[in-house]
Structures are given as structure tokens and as C-alpha cells.
Amino acid sequence: MPKQYQLQDAEKWAAFSGDNNPIHFSQAAARQLGLDVLCIHGMRAMLDLKASLGIQAPLVLPQGQSLLFSCRLDKPVFYQQAHVLETEQFSRNSQIQLRSTLRNALSQERCINAKLVAAPDFTQSQEAEDGLMSMLEMHSSARQLSAMTGQDLSLWNVLDALLFKQLIHSPETMCRVRDVLPELDCTDLMAVFSQMQMVQTHHETHFSPSLLAHDDITVFAQPLSFSILPALMVGKSHSGFILRVAIQAFVDKKALIRSSITLKATTFAAE
């Protein structure tokens, strides 16, 4: 399936998520990362990979099992360049898996690699409730995201995008991040993006099989609670580090979905 992203795609994702990371809009910011061309948000491109996986999953993966989506972002996906999205089924260690890849049509380099597999059920971490996602917000988000991609999306795809939005804007995220990076004087993770050279390298989502549905809105019959989990860091703050932050959503004390993002930071902008 051919894919080509434009600046307008980034603007629509930024309007939805509030992710205004300058590397997607500013040539100067992109050059700081060694890029001569602007690139689309990894999360925006990921919507299309997840949509493709979501269509195939009910056909080939075991029914009634929790699922694990994992994604590695290897190369930037540049605007106005032809890309190809491919989704295939394969078997590994006697387990059926789905793999989706976005590659540059000219260079044949793989930019984003993702897979979806059956996984053990997960239990809700015992964290305090940090907020609610209302029914109106969830329905509105589903409409916005479907309009962006031009197709109906599985509920897990919608919730994953919405949880990312909560994660980068919730002050509670910075409370968790300050435990490992006390020197960061920011109100939310989005503010960190504007101060540091930071890119997403991995994404992981563990979710209930009920969220594979495209039209089952019973999951949205009431607000979803969410909690932000403790952050993990590898490296040194002033010479570059890897930061992992995660968020989970649940209803009636039952976990539905947990998402985590891994970010690679180089140096503080002030240095």
C-alpha cells in the first residue's frame, strides 16, 4: 500500500495530540538532529500501521486473548517521499504473528517496524487514578482519527492515540519523570520536547481483545480512568539518556490497555 505524508498530516496530528515538537515543523530544529528534510510524527505514521494490523488481527490471531503491539522507529519518515506499507502474517516459535512495515519506496530502507501478537493477560498496576477520559472525548477522538486516516479504526488504536495525548500533557507524567530526572523544570512532557532534542524510538501497547472491535462502543459507555506509571531512565541526563514512560486505562477497576513510549534524548538545549 503506497503512503506519502505531507506537512498537513503533521498539522492535523499536532492539532489532535498537541505534539508540536519543532523537529516536525522547523528546518532549524530538524538540522540539529542531522536531518535536511522534515519528517512526520512517528505516532501519526503508526496510526496507519496499527490500522492495517487491526484489520488482519481478527482473521489470523487467536480469539479472546490479550494482544501486544510493539513498534520500533528506525528511520525518519520524510514528507513528500513515497513510502510503502506492508502487512504480513508469519510464524515464529509456533506462534502466529502479524508484522507491518513502513519502508521508503526509493531507498527500500525500513523506517518503522511493528508487530502484533497474542499475549498473556495483564493485570492493572496498583497506581493512583490520575484522571478520566470522558465518553465525549473518546467519541470525538475516534471521529478525528478516522478522518485523518480515511478509515474506521479499532478501539485500541483510538485509545492508544488518546493515551499518548494524556501522557505528554498530564502534569502527573512529570511527577514520575522527576523521580529519575529531578533537574527537569517542566510542567509536562511536551515542554521537555521544546527544551531538548528528543525522539521516540519504541512504542508498546498491551490491550484487551475487546478493543479489536471497530464499532463496539459499549467499552465507551462510561469514562475510562487512567494512571501514569513510574518512569524509567537509562544513561546520564546531561550527556544523553533513554526515557521510558507508560500509562494505563481501566474501567470498573479492570485494566483495558497499557501503553509505553521510549524516548531518546541527546543533550539539554541550554548546553
Task: Explain what you see.
This protein is of the alpha+beta class. Helices cover 30% and strands 34% of the residues. It contains seven helices and eleven strands. It has helices at residues 7-17, 27-32, 42-60, 135-149, 155-169, 171-178, 189-195; strands at 2-3, 66-73, 83-92, 95-104, 110-119, 131-133, 196-207, 224-228, 232-236, 240-251, 254-268. Strands 1, 2, 3, 4, 5, 6, 7, 8, 9, 10 and 11 form an eleven-stranded antiparallel β-sheet that branches. Strand 4 and strand 5 form a beta hairpin. Helix 1 (7-17) runs antiparallel to helix 4 (135-149) and helix 4 packs across helix 5. It is globular, with a radius of gyration of 18 Å. The termini are far apart. 37% of the residues are buried. The model has no long low-confidence stretch (mean pLDDT 88).
Structure summarized in a few sentences:
The chain is an alpha+beta fold and 271 residues long.
Task: Bin the helical content.
Answer: 25-40%
Give start-end ranges of low-pLDDT stretches.
Answer: none
Instruction: Please indicate the percent range of residues in DSSP E strands (runs of 2 or more).
Output: 25-35%
The H-and-E topology, N to C, reads as EHHHEEEEEHHHHEEEEE
Number of helices: 7
Radius of gyration: 18 Å
Structural class: alpha+beta
DSSP summary, beta strand count: 11
**Biggest pleated-sheet summary:** 11 strands, antiparallel
Distance between the ends? 43 Å
User: What gross morphology would you assign?
Assistant: globular
Mean pLDDT: 88
Chain-wise SSE layout:
Layout: E1 2-3, H1 7-17, H2 27-32, H3 42-60, E2 66-73, E3 83-92, E4 95-104, E5 110-119, E6 131-133, H4 135-149, H5 155-169, H6 171-178, H7 189-195, E7 196-207, E8 224-228, E9 232-236, E10 240-251, E11 254-268
Antiparallel strand pairs: 1-3, 2-5, 2-7, 3-4, 4-5, 6-8, 7-11, 8-10, 9-10, 10-11
Helix pairs in contact: 1-4, 4-5
